[in-house]
């Protein structure tokens, strides 16, 4: 007697194969995205290095004095011409007040120039600086230097014989423009650096469902071998007693009972892998797509999941989130912002005896808001105004680029929202994010507007 195989077995096998092919294809696409962005990072680093070298070569070639100082007048950098003129190295001048370069009446003039430059540029102010061979008269031009937020970041002082600086200054301005362009591209590539910090968590998260699926497939392979052996005996015309004996020996009843749970578990593991890959692709997406409504709560939970999986310490997280909170924008970009805020909070509590975060969200007057609070040491008052400055970081060397908050601030501003970081009333820091909430579907109030 020949027993026919159930046609659903082929359908279930085909569905599982299709699911695996879909998962593998999505993983390949995500890996290709990572490789492409890594290449972009390397290209931008090379461009930035070339721009730095160009600026250094321009400064070295200048025969006129060039001094850069901070907003308080402390020297940050000088060119080779200044070193040769004064006989002092840049290392010995670093963080020295500008007025220490002069004496007597020239010292008072220079102090006045540094005060005036905060309001207006100073042109062709004649003073004398202490040089190798005595006082060296120079015509100084002082210009303020502002950061991206329009705040005074420092002062640039150029000393020259009349008529000779203009050409060199134009070359320096062009070099600065090229350097700025390279820096902007590097800032865009910081997104992938943030993604790199999550690779360990992603690998761990993928390993669990893949291991589960792998184990189920091994069990299915064993069961398949038993079924093949049994059906071969059926086709050979064995007696009912022989079939019953082999069925008991191979424990086919138990194997058949396990088939549904094995297939269901395998599909569940494959679906989990697909969800992980989809979240990873969402995080690595760019702003090329149009803005669209998305659920901010899903973004927050996804970001929190990655961060806690990667964290080396157990962090207690108190969540007060609505079921859903829709905003309009680029979900991948906002995901990057939220990851950065939660990551910073997690880093701030890493050394606390009882690390804890509190994450809240809601909406008010057309705005969606998100708050991420930690129980860390808080932020020094003098650092609060500088948190969003590019390359500023309070983390140890090698643990932060100083670009995360600056990029996040730009993303939120481009979305028409706000981003603030303050010290909490009970200690720690609080990051406060607001975004325009998604407009409700056209209703009674909007019908008149068409």
Automatic annotation (TrEMBL):
Enzyme Commission number: 2.7.13.3
NCBIfam families, sorted: sensory_box
PANTHER family to which the protein is assigned, alphabetical: SENSOR HISTIDINE KINASE (PTHR43065), TWO-COMPONENT SENSOR PPRA (PTHR43065:SF42)
Domain Histidine kinase: 201-439
Record's keyword annotation contains Amino-acid biosynthesis: no
Identification of the protein by name: histidine kinase
Keyword Ribonucleoprotein: no
Coiled coil: 165-192
Catalytically driven reaction(s): ATP + protein L-histidine = ADP + protein N-phospho-L-histidine
Source organism of the structure: Marinobacterium lutimaris
Keywords (A to Z) from UniProt: Coiled coil, Kinase, Phosphoprotein, Transferase
InterPro entries tied to this protein: HATPase_C_sf, HATPase_dom, His_kinase_dom, HisK_dim/P_dom, HisK_dim/P_sf, PAS, PAS-like_dom_sf, PAS_4
Gene Ontology terms, MF aspect: phosphorelay sensor kinase activity
Domain PAS per the UniProt entry, residue ranges: 51-121
Xref: Pfam families: HATPase_c, HisKA, PAS_4
Signal sequence range: none
């Amino acid at each position: 007697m020949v027993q026919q195989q159930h046609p659903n077995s082929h359908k279930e096998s085909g569905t599982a194969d299709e699911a695996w092919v879909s998962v593998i294809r999505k993983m390949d696409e995500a890996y290709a995205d990572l490789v492409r962005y890594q290449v972009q990072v390397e290209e931008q680093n090379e461009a930035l290095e070339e721009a730095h070298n160009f600026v250094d070569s321009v400064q070295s070639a200048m025969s006129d004095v060039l001094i850069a100082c901070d907003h308080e007048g402390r020297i940050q950098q000088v060119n080779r011409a200044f070193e040769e003129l004064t006989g002092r190295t840049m290392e010995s001048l670093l963080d020295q007040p500008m007025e220490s370069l002069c004496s007597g009446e020239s010292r008072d003039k220079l102090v006045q120039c540094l005060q005036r430059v905060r309001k207006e540029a100073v042109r062709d102010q004649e003073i004398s600086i202490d040089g190798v061979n005595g006082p060296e008269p120079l015509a100084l031009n002082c210009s303020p230097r502002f950061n991206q937020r329009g705040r005074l970041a420092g002062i640039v002082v150029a000393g020259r014989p009349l008529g000779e600086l203009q050409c060199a200054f134009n070359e320096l301005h062009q070099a600065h423009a090229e350097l700025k362009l390279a820096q902007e591209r590097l800032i865009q590539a910081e997104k992938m650096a943030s993604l790199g910090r999550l690779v360990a968590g992603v690998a761990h998260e993928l390993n669990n469902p893949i291991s589960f699926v792998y184990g189920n497939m091994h069990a299915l392979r064993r069961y398949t071998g038993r079924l093949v052996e049994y059906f071969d005996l059926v086709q050979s015309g064995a007696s009912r007693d022989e079939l019953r004996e082999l069925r008991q020996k191979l424990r086919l009843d138990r194997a058949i009972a396990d088939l549904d749970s094995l297939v269901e578990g395998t599909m569940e593991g494959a679906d989990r892998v697909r969800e992980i890959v989809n979240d990873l692709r969402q995080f690595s997406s760019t702003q090329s797509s149009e803005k669209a409504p998305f659920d901010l709560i899903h973004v927050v939970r996804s970001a929190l999941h990655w961060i806690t999986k990667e964290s080396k310490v157990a962090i207690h997280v108190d969540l007060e989130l609505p079921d859903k909170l829709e905003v309009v924008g680029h979900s991948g970009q906002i995901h990057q912002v939220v990851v950065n805020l939660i990551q910073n909070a997690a880093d701030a509590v890493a050394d606390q005896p009882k690390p804890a975060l509190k994450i809240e969200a809601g909406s008010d007057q057309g705005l969606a808001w998100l708050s991420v609070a930690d129980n860390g040491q808080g932020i020094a008052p003098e650092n609060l105004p500088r948190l969003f400055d590019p390359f500023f970081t309070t983390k140890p060397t090698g643990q932060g680029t100083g670009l995360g908050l600056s990029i996040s601030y730009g993303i939120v501003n481009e979305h028409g929202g706000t981003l603030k970081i303050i010290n909490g009333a009970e200690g720690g820091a609080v990051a406060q994010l607001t975004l325009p909430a998604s407009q409700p579907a056209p209703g009674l109030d909007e019908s008149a507007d068409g």
